Amino acid sequence: MTAKPAAAAARATVYGYPRQGQNRELKKAIEGYWKGRVTADALRQTAAELRRGTWQQLAEAGVHEVPTGDFSYYDHVLDTSVMVGAVPERHRDAVRADALDGYFAMARGTQDVAPLEMTKWFDTNYHYLVPELGPDTEFTADSAKQVAEFKEALALGLTPRPVLVGPVTYLLLAKAAPGVAADFEPLALLDRLLPVYAEVLADLRAAGAEWVQLDEPALVQDRTPAELNAAARAYRDLGGLTDRPKLLVASYFGRLGEALPVLAKAPVDGLALDFTESGAGNLDDLAAAGGLPGKRLVAGVVNGRNIWINDYEKSLSVLGTLLGLADRVDVSASCSLLHVPLDADAERDIDPQIARWLAFAKQKTEEIVVLARGLAAGTDTITAELLANRADLASRTAAVITRDPAVRARTAAITDADGRRSQPYAERTLAQRANLGLPLLPTTTIGSFPQTTELRTARADLRAGRIDEAGYEERIKDEIREVLSFQEKAGIDVLVHGEPERNDMVQYFAEQLTGYLATQHGWVQSYGTRYVRPPVLAGDISRPEPMTVRWTTYAQALTERPVKGMLTGPVTMLAWSFVRDDQPLGDTARQVALALRDEVNDLEANGTSVIQVDEPALRETLPLRAAEHAAYLEWATESFRLATAGVRPDTQIHTHMCYAEFGDIVQAIDDLDADVISLEAARSHMQVARELAAHGYPREAGPGVYDIHSPRIPSTEEAAALLRKGLEAIPAARLWVNPDCGLKTRGWPETRASLENLVAAAREIRAELPDEAV
């Protein structure tokens, strides 16, 4: 295949880039600032150096237009709230006293003031801070950050393109503020918000910006006619401004569908679309809409969310077709590269052949540049790259790691009976209550306890050879004993061993399963300063030997109270990994489920009566379009049941979910057939409990009463108030008392105090219950 040069030379660009630095310098600087070890000026200097390094790296790679404004100390949606002056009343004093501390107070809260709610950014594992709006919200423009970062890049001799969250997506992501009627629609504030965006755009134009990118990913979801009309009005008004830069409206994570003709007709200067598998249909829809005559098209042909190398020939074919649909076609990734690690070249422990299949942010940038060169100057100019790419793709297809006949045979033999418990819940719960002997409102935690400096030091000492395996295990045993002792003294009913031996809830299991690869430097931002290293799911999955049985049974031998076995569910094992793209996700999920089934059965056989299989990603992985929900939820819930259905009736199966909107998957939660579910509920004021009640959810539930993503300590009164709200929706016989999520990121002092208050609240509410409830 030989593509002809484009009429207007194609250029390379990206929507956004990872923020943290190669060695997570930003995380360390921010956490140092919180602890008083780093000054505000030093933090700002670190941030400026990271921005400068990113822009220069992009420019040296051949990117013609670098993004600015996508950098954030915590979250880009929170930055947008600051930009438009949407600061909640409870945080205004902190912001006025010190803008930086006030910003972090909105993100993390203080002892006296709760933070903003946090939830998942579309179907990714990135978390954003939810704007709180009401009919009295007044917006005011503050473009200081956006203008300053644009000028920083401009001073380096680069061509910057500021990136903003678009006004429609911002309002669609927002919620009614506390005290505002639940039926308030933030989109009603659009006409009030657009003049503020107009002011920010004018400020950027005055600073020298030629183009500004407005991100509207919410438009790839199902949208009502009223919402589409709002989008049309927004871009009619912004596009009609006289004092503005050129506007590039960017969508990603899927097909624009009915929103595409709305944006194509708008008086904006360009569109950015996803043309990877997730955006299937955008090419046909664009052709059906008559293309983008007179406009710029930024084509997202490199997958910005996964780490496999691009298929150059396939991408060039798409790009060649697009040349006839717009005046100018530029090349990019399908979304911001925020969702992938920085540099695959840093991975020294991965087999060199396999490493050639991987593309992190740096390698994806290089792919974008190669494709832009091939599109602009013809494929003869990239012959060597095409040959190498073809060879790498072929080597992956033929690799032994990708196929295990035994795993495939076992998966093919699955029957419907494998995914069903031997008794219905109504009968199981009686056996479980007799077996466990728990009080009303039983207390528990989600699984992990603080990962202390001593634990991290022990891991580092083991890796460095300063201690041997026996010495490391003694430290783990000491930690388990301390965690159990605290829980018993605090009065917690169902204990956990604290997971001191685990690095991450997915990585820990991935390192013990065949088919997975672990990275050393593949850090990806989950929220704020929380970074994870998603493993790479490269081949068929099996469990060579038990993964958790030893430590769980060790802990159970130390106490008379039940100790939960803790596992990560099949959907989350996929969602928080870079999953293989060469077979359906459902097939991979079933393989993981069978491996976990073996672990669940072994835990039960070794005396574990309560087993928790966490699925926090069940909602996160829900497709963005309703038409695709049923097929996904069918294999997602099936895989959970396949992992858990092999136990006796008196073994209690728990699951856990957090930081997502659960109202639209309550039926799927029911279909899991777990005996107990714990969910995040503290920041959302028990919303999920009301949603479970409205559905008629028949099983036990523990909506969280302790927000673990904030350093503040909830008082006994605060936890009791949330429990009372929970009891309005869930009967006492089915209500559990627990935090929102695991305690890994918290410190011991706040953990002790918060859990003691949680237990005290449970006792207080028990004492208030009528005799018939008891």
Automatic annotation (TrEMBL):
Binding-site residues for Zn(2+), renumbered to this chain: 656, 658, 680, 741
Listed cofactors: Zn(2+)
Domain Cobalamin-independent methionine synthase MetE C-terminal/archaeal: residue ranges: 441-763
Family recorded in the similarity comment: Belongs to the vitamin-B12 independent methionine synthase family.
Annotated Cobalamin-independent methionine synthase MetE N-terminal domain residues: 13-323
GO molecular function: 5-methyltetrahydropteroyltriglutamate-homocysteine S-methyltransferase activity
Classification via CDD domains: CIMS_C_terminal_like, CIMS_N_terminal_like
Protein name (record): 5-methyltetrahydropteroyltriglutamate--homocysteine methyltransferase
Lineage: Bacteria, Bacillati, Actinomycetota, Actinomycetes, Kitasatosporales
